[in-house]
Amino acid sequence: MFKRVPVVLASVLVLAAGSAPAGVGSGAAPGSAAAHAWGVRIVEASGTASGTQEISAPPQTAGFIGPFTSGSIVSTGSGNAYLSADTGTTANASASLTISDISMFGGDLTVASVVVKAEATAKQGSASGDFPGVAVNGLTVLGQPVGSGAGTIQLGDWGYAIILGQGATQQTASSYRGYVSGVEAHVTADHNGIPAGTTVQIGYVDVQVDAPTGQEATPEKSPKAPKPVKPAGKAPTGTIKPPEPPSNGIPLPPLGSSPPPGSHPKLGGGGYVFPVFGPSSFVDTFGAPRGDVSGGWHHGDDIFAPLGAPIVAIATGTVFSVGWNNVGGYRLWLRDRVGNQFYYAHLSAYSPLAVNGAHVHAGDVLGFVGNSGDAQGTPYHLHFEVHPVQFLGYGYNGAVDPTAYLLEWQHLQDVRFSAAEGWAPTPNANSRAPQPGAILLQVRDISSASGLEPDSLKRALAPVTHEGEGGILQPPRPPSQTGPAAASAAARHRS
How many CB atoms are located within 10 Å of the residue 414 CB? Predict the structure, then answer.
């Protein structure tokens, strides 16, 4: 009898060591569940990451997200997150996060609130997940409301934002990984002191579940272990999980792709006018090879005109992304009333109407023809692009050939200036942009012209091409090269 006691005890120990959740066999692999969330994550071009603290489960967690600010990159109000993760006969994980009062890139993009949720469950042989009730509320770009459904929003020529990006994977029938990101903005060209390559993510949650296996393993039929998956919330420092198409049926075109060749959608805004006032010329060069950062091809047409020729708003709308970049030089964007976007580049100067967020009307003077940026040394021209609203999901590559539109629009014959001079903003300290200045193109005596007689003013202000009194001012030339007459003229210039 005493000899049987060790046998009984050994049996008890074996049962204890092999214990598993109810319904799971003694040779089963345990299940797993996890959830992660953060309010803000910034990854700089160098790979340096910063932002609010990551919140994780298990155990079941409720976290508070305090107000956050990082220079002009992003500022937010407060938020909160709730996460849970547990395993038993099933594995369950859920995460929800809310954050409000978001301003990005100095107010270029603002959001009233972001709500992201994810949930997942897995049991033996099946796993599933969902993103219930996700929302981005009160989305504006430069003060103009923008539809906040899932998709990609172009941010001028300097970036793009993915709204409600979602992704899910299942490596086995009993495992599930899913994530949702409220707003993920990518800066692709230096903008207001923020370097290209900066990524900002607002409102992120992910969930991961693996069901416990409930069958006794045997040498002949050992269950194949699932391939390890690194949790999305535990990505290596300095990275953000690449965006994937949303799972709610709204397709996103692949970044870098373009609309179908020959696309010429109806713009629908009405009241369009030609973008350059006065004599000009252009040919169709859309799609021609280009060896710069514009994607390797010409996204618009070049409209050649004299230096200083007025550039006008082609439609009533809102001005945005006014400023310098190394390719476009002094450039700006215009969004019309239905959401189409138009790009103007290589300006010599701006008018006082060229202010971010300014509401302008068709024909308002926005700036003046030049050759700034990578057009320096080329004939003076305006680089002009058309980005229809239905193609904004392609990002900067959503441009279509503007030639047919330009041929349809009439030249504006009467331009009203809101001020006598143009201006240019001060470039960022790290920019290669030249310092703002004034160029005197010509001088005329209009004291005899009558403001009550339009033709009189028109004659007085008519452009001239000769040098001399009332003509184009030329820089002084060395007397040794031009003779006594030119030397006398040069002396007059210097005086």
Answer: 7
Could you tell me which residues come within 8 angstroms of residue 409 by beta carbon, excluding any fewer than 6 positions away? 272, 273, 274, 314
CA distances from 254 to 131, 162, 243, 398 (A): 22, 12, 11, 11
Residues in contact with 266: Cβ distance below 8 Å, sequence separation at least 6, in sequence order: none
Which secondary structure element, helix H or strand E, spans residue 486, and what is its range?
helix 479-494
Largest Cα span, the chain: 134
pLDDT digits (tens, 9 = 90+) for 246-273: 333 334 455 557 778 888 899 987 789 9
Question: pLDDT tens digits, residue range 9-33?
Answer: 333 323 333 334 444 444 556 789 9
pLDDT of residue 365: 93
Residue with the larger pLDDT of the pair 295 and 298: 298
Whether this prediction's pTM lies above 0.85 is answered by no
- Who's near 18: CB < 8 A, 6+ residues apart? 26, 27
Question: Which of these, 328, 286, 332, 280, lies nearest to 307 by C-alpha position?
Answer: 280
Q: Which of 244, 85, 124, 228 is nearest to 179 (CA)?
A: 244
Show the DSSP H helices in 340-478 as ranges. 403-408, 454-460
> Mean pLDDT throughout 307-315?
93
Alpha helices in 373-450 (DSSP H): 403-408
Count of CB atoms situated within 10 Å of the CB of 261: 8
